[in-house]
Amino acid sequence: MRQSRKNKEMISSAADAQKATLKEAGEWVQAIVIAVVLAFLIRTFLFEIILVDGSSMEPTLYDANRIFVYKLAYLTGKPQHGDVVIFKTPENIKYNYVKRLIGLPGDRVRIEDGVVYVNDQPLDEPYTVAPPYNDYMEVTVPENAFFVLGDNRNDSKDSRDYRIGFVPMDNLVGKAVWRVWPLDNISAIH
Predict the structure, then answer these.
(1) In the chain, fewer beta carbons within 10 Å around the N or the C end?
(2) Active-site pick, 13, 19, 94, 99
(3) What are the pLDDT tens digits along the chain (190 aa)?
(4) φ and ψ at 9, to 5 degrees?
(5) Catalytic choice (4, 8, 23, 56)
(6) Range of the structural domain that residue 58 is part of
(7) Could you give the number of structural domains in the chain?
């Protein structure tokens, strides 16, 4: 009789241990699923780390820099002259482009003798190394669109190129706010 009770207690104890193990495993699975869903939502709607590919934004950003992009920037505020923006082009929506926002809707933009003018006012551009080689005739930025230029004006595919053109508001991914890589060069993006 004692043996039978002892066996029942052992079986009960093993079953309880198994239930506890299953409960713990279920909690881990639940935590992992929640973490994955949260990561997806954060990356989709709040922010993303993007790799810079190319030299079109030098000296502000360099090839292989990683930048923190705030995706809600233009849901909570309006794009401003000088913002460094991430956008997609109709040419290839699989890739992100990073450029500086020069012209807002209704602005008149032109390049003359190496100077960029917005609404007939020359821009002060301390973020560029060299002025653009070529002139660009005046254009008016359409409603719900933007005119963008790379900081490396002579090596940039930007709104001056017909394949990019004006960037529609819907194509803005977000605002570049921080360089997070390389670690020895973490800084705000201006």
Answers:
(1) N
(2) 99
(3) 555 665 555 566 666 667 767 677 677 777 676 666 666 655 555 578 889 999 999 999 999 999 999 998 888 889 999 999 999 987 788 889 999 999 999 999 999 999 999 999 999 999 998 999 999 999 999 999 999 999 999 999 999 999 999 999 999 999 999 899 888 888 888 8
(4) -65, -40
(5) 56
(6) 52-188
(7) 2
